[in-house]
Amino acid sequence: MSEQSKNTTLRNRKESSEVTLETKTENQPLPQDFPLPDTEEKQTRRQKAVSQTFLTSANLANHLPTGTVLAFQFLAPIFSNQGECDSASRLITAGLVTICGLSCILSTFTDSFRDKKGTVCYGFATVNGLWIMDGSATLPPELAANYKLRFIDFVHAIMAALVFASVILFEQNTVSCFYPSLTVENRKILMAMRVGIGVICSKLFVVFPTKRHGIGFPLPDA
Question: Is 75 helix (H, G, I), strand (E, B) or coil?
Answer without folding.
Answer: helix
